[in-house]
Write a structure and sequence with these properties.
It contains 10 helices and 12 strands. The chain is an alpha/beta fold. The protein has helices at residues 16-27, 110-116, 132-136, 179-186, 201-222, 232-251, 260-269, 278-284, 291-305, 310-321, and strands at 8-12, 31-35, 43-48, 57-61, 79-82, 96-99, 123-126, 146-151, 153-159, 162-167, 173-176, 195-198. The longest helix has 22 residues, at 201-222. It has 2 domains: 8-199, Rossmann fold; 202-321, Orthogonal Bundle (N-(1-d-carboxylethyl)-l-norvaline Dehydrogenase, domain 2), CATH 1.10.1040.10. Helix 5 (201-222) crosses helix 10 (310-321). The strands form 2 sheets. It has an 8-stranded mixed beta sheet, with helices on both faces.
Length: 324
C-alpha cells in the first residue's frame, strides 16, 4: 500500500456502514473523503453502543480538529465531500478506497472505482455475502487489490452522515490474513472499530453469511426487529434455513462444523433488543433489498452441488416479491 502523498482514504457509499467505517478511519488519524450521495455532508458521526467514546459520540467533522482532550468531547476530523467522480480529488491519490454500498448497488459505483482505485489504491469491500471479489473483478482497474471485509457492527443510519452502531459478539471488521488484508487492518489501529484478520476467510465469510441469510430476510418479511428471532416457530424456520446454507457452504469448501447452524441461531437470538437488520431498514425506507447477495449464493450453490435448499428458495421468492 502506497504511503507518502497517499495519506487520505475514500469512502464510496456513506450510509450507515460507510459512516461507521469512515469515522473509524478518521478516528485512527486518516483524512477521509466521502464520495457520492445527494446530501451535502459537513461531517460524519457515529454513536457506538449507546455509550460511545468520550461523550458517547465519535465524530468526523468539518473543522479539521481532533478532540479527546480529557473532557469527554467527541473526536473531530476534516472530511471532504465529492458529489461525483468528475470532481477533483485531493492530490496524491487515495491510500484506500472503501466500498460500502449495498451489493446490488456495486455496478452503479463503477465510475468511482475507475476514478479512484488502482494498484496503489486497494478497495476494501464492506458488503454482505461471500462474493466480494467476483463482484468487483470486472469493475476495478487491472492490478487493483480487492480486500473483502465482514462487518460485525450493527449500524443504523440516523441522518445524513450520522449513524448508531452496536457491537455484536465483540468483533468489528474481519479481513483476509494476507499482505493486503493486514495492511488494511493496520489503518484502523487506534479507532473504535477493531479490525482483525482471518487465515481461513472462506469459512469466516460463510459463518457470517449464516447470520445474514437468515436474520435479514426474516426481519424484512415480518417487519420486525431482532426480537422476532426468539419466537419458537420463527426459530424453527431460521434453523432450517441455516442448515441448508451450511450444507452449501461446506460444499463450497467452508469448514463449517455440524453445530454451526445452531450456533448462528444462538448468536441471532442474543442480539441487543431493538436492533434492526440492514434489510429491514431498507424495506422501511422503501429501498431495493439486498436479497440476491445473501440468498443467491445458497440457492445457486445448492443447484450447482446438488444440495436441496427448499427453504432458502422459498424465502428468496418471498423477499424478491417485496416491492419498495
Amino acid at each position: 500500500m502506497a504511503q507518502g502523498a497517499r495519506a487520505w482514504v475514500a469512502v464510496v457509499g456513506v450510509g450507515a456502514v460507510g459512516t461507521a467505517v469512515g469515522v473509524a478511519l478518521a478516528d485512527g488519524g486518516r483524512t477521509v473523503v466521502a464520495c457520492g450521495g445527494s446530501s451535502v455532508l459537513d461531517g460524519l458521526s457515529v454513536q457506538v453502543d449507546g455509550e460511545g467514546r468520550g461523550d458517547g459520540e465519535a465524530t468526523a467533522g468539518g473543522d479539521g480538529t481532533r478532540g479527546g482532550d480529557g473532557d469527554g468531547g467527541p473526536h473531530r476530523h476534516r472530511v471532504r465531500w465529492l458529489r461525483d467522480p468528475g470532481q477533483q480529488p485531493p492530490p496524491g491519490g487515495p491510500a484506500l478506497v472503501v466500498l460500502a454500498v449495498k451489493a446490488h448497488q456495486t455496478a452503479a459505483a463503477a465510475p468511482w472505482l475507475r476514478a479512484l482505485a488502482g494498484p496503489d489504491a486497494p478497495v476494501l469491500v464492506v458488503q454482505n455475502g461471500v462474493e466480494h471479489r467476483q463482484r468487483l473483478a470486472p469493475l476495478v482497474p487491472p492490478g487493483t487489490p480487492v480486500v473483502p471485509a465482514l462487518m460485525y457492527l450493527n449500524a443504523e443510519r440516523t441522518g445524513p452522515g450520522r449513524a448508531t452502531a452496536r457491537r455484536t459478539g465483540g468483533r468489528g471488521l474481519v479481513v483476509p490474513d494476507d499482505a493486503a488484508g493486514r495492511a488494511v487492518a493496520a489503518l484502523f489501529a487506534g479507532s473504535f472499530l477493531n479490525a482483525e484478520t482471518a487465515a481461513d476467510f472462506r469459512t469466516a465469510a460463510w459463518r457470517k453469511l449464516l447470520t445474514n441469510v437468515a436474520g435479514n430476510p426474516i426481519t424484512a418479511l415480518t417487519g420486525r426487529r431482532v426480537e422476532v428471532f426468539r419466537e419458537p416457530a420463527v426459530g424453527d424456520l431460521l434453523l432450517a434455513l441455516l442448515e441448508e446454507a451450511a450444507a452449501v457452504g461446506r460444499a463450497e469448501g467452508a469448514a463449517l462444523p455440524a453445530d454451526a447452524p445452531a450456533e448462528a441461531l444462538t448468536w441471532l437470538r442474543a442480539l441487543p433488543p431493538g436492533a434492526p437488520s440492514s434489510m429491514l431498514q431498507d424495506r422501511l425506507a422503501g429501498r431495493e433489498l439486498e436479497h440476491e447477495a445473501l440468498l443467491g449464493p445458497v440457492v445457486r450453490g445448492g443447484d450447482a452441488h446438488g444440495v436441496p435448499v427448499p427453504v432458502a428458495r422459498a424465502v428468496q421468492a418471498l423477499v424478491a416479491a417485496l416491492r419498495p
